[in-house]
Amino acid sequence: MIDWVTAVVPCFSADPDKLNDGLICRIRPDGEYEWAKHVPISVVGSHDANMRVSYHPISKGSGYIGPALRIDGNPAKWLQGHNIFGSSDLSGLIYAVLERLVAILELQPDEQETDSWKRGMYHIYRVDCTEMWEFPTHADVLAWLNAAQFQSKSRHGKPIMTGGTLYFGKNSRRWSLKFYSKGEEVNRRDNPLPASLPFRNMLLEFADNKLRAELVLRRPQLEKLNINMAFIWKLETPKQQLLEHLATLDMADQFLLTTKQIDGLLPRLQLAYKSWQRGEDLRSMFGKSTFYRYRREMLKHGIDISASCEDRQEKKMALREIFKNEPAQIPEWAIRTEILFQPLLSESSVGDSGHDAMAMGEPHGRPSHAPGAASSECGHSNTAL
Predict the structure, then answer these.
(1) Which of 87, 139, 252, 337 is 20 to 30 A away from residue 98, measured at CA?
(2) Which residue has the higher pLDDT, 97 or 267?
(3) Of 240, 230, 1, nearest to 124 (Cα)?
(4) CA-based nearest residue to 6, from 106, 97, 110
(5) How far is the C-alpha of 216 from the C-alpha of 180, rounded, in Å?
(6) pLDDT (tens digit, 9 = 90+) per residue, 152-185?
(7) CB of 248 closer than 8 Å to CB of 241
(8) Contacts of 185 (CB under 8 A, 6+ apart)
(9) Can you give the pLDDT at residue 121?
(10) If 0-12 CB within 10 Å is exposed, 13-18 middle and 19+ buried, where does residue 23 land?
């Protein structure tokens, strides 16, 4: 699916006075002015998700000269309230965002301009391509991340683990990969799923045992691959790019929790772990609150003390093996509901991709709303701008 996008879209009616939230200036110590930059405005979408929008004049040499909109954000989250799953139709998502922005920002595109939007005739500066893979348990996801931290590398070198996210090429100007537990992310206190989101508990349960892989393609890499225009992107492009970059990673043949990793546990957790290894019942050894506190802390190391140790000890898995499986599909219960936004797909972009769950809804990707259900506040109308 498409996650984060930065795009610069021609728009003659873009007003710099309305599309800035102030200025950031650089002035030299001697008082000489060097440059000024508009601060983007934040436009609220579905369930309080934000899209950053700014005025971006395009200069000579780009194939177009004139005012433009720079949009920067997560179209899926802005349109449907979450990004656990969503569409792979890059042009369709951006057009849906533009259609909504026309009403909010009182833009006045002409027919030629809206036609160029529909056809994807604009530049892309960043695209995040993402898929999720399912593990038997949440603890298995954490164990994979912990092992991959020590037993894998990319052309950028060893990965970096920050806040539970494993980064390859985190500071690269071209591209980077990151992996994390989607279940952990959606349960964070600082970034929870909106309480008003329909099917919220089902979304949380669905995300719990999923490993998220995200490829961040930045402008130099997009230009190198000749995929820096929206119209070039087909439904299969995000998945294809992600898998091709995943294939460049050097990963160990198999992983288990190592002694070194176990030794990293706090002393009180090591005692609990060794008791669990001996097959003792930790629920009877500790109070309820202590047991669940220990379980929560040990899950960070891929150890689930609520599961049988005998089953756990026998688990061996190649780090790369998980990517031989098909990525997690959009659940059937989400199809034709307001938590799955499906752009209108052109005949040429539908293609033969059977995997893309975005084609699992109505023909040609019509908005995915259940009969009689309330439409999302950012729903895509069937009328032209």
Answers:
(1) 337
(2) 97
(3) 230
(4) 97
(5) 14
(6) 888 888 999 998 999 999 999 999 999 999 999 9
(7) no
(8) 164, 191, 207, 212
(9) 94
(10) exposed
